[in-house]
Amino acid sequence: MKTTHKMRTAALACVAAALAxxxxxxxxxxxxxxxxxxxxxxxxxxxxxxxxxxxxxxPGILPxxxxxxxxxxxxxxxxxxxxxxxxxxPKNRRIVIYDRATQAFRSIAYxxxxxxxxxxxxPGLPALDRVKKTITVxxxxxxxxxxxxxxxxxLAMPADTWRAGDVVRYYYKDPARALRLMNVxxxxxxxxAG
Length: 194
Fold this sequence. Notes:
There is one protein chain. By secondary structure, the protein is mainly beta. The chain has one domain. The protein has three helices and twelve strands, in the order αββββββββββαββα. The strands form three sheets. It has a five-stranded antiparallel β-sheet, with no helix packed on it. A four-stranded antiparallel β-sheet has the order 7-10-9-8, with no helix packed on it. It has a three-stranded antiparallel β-sheet with strand order 4-5-6, with no helix packed on it. Strand 5 and strand 6 form a beta hairpin. It is elongated, with a radius of gyration of 23 Å. It starts with a helix and ends with a helix. Mean pLDDT is about 85; it is low at about 1-25.
């Protein structure tokens, strides 16, 4: 009987060693970034990763990263909204967007037409006024609503260029596929903790 127990223990040890060497026991990694595109049909999300210890003046890390969202919707949470607005800096009157045409960041110095601060609620989609030649954007971080004078080339860009995409955090082992994805922007963490 002791021989059978020893054999079983040895066999289990061999199986455990084989699984560990095959990578089944490896720990995953966590990344976070701002969504610039999301395709529900293919379950592909493209984002600009945030650097570790990101500051408010950093638009993120290029190149963009595309990952597949989890197959199980319970591992994903709210669907992320995409946008090209990476940084709104009212103090320095600068906006940084992700320009899809050049696949790079574009820094735009702006001239404000109107600025409203301490706006507690996002008024919705950015407003493009081609007659007045203005664009109105909202910064969640600064709770600021900024209307600025815009050139024809800025007004010709897609409307979602001027909206900040949702921030997502994802856990993965394969860098091309998220095992879990949390929409940080749309998740009320105070309710999750209670």
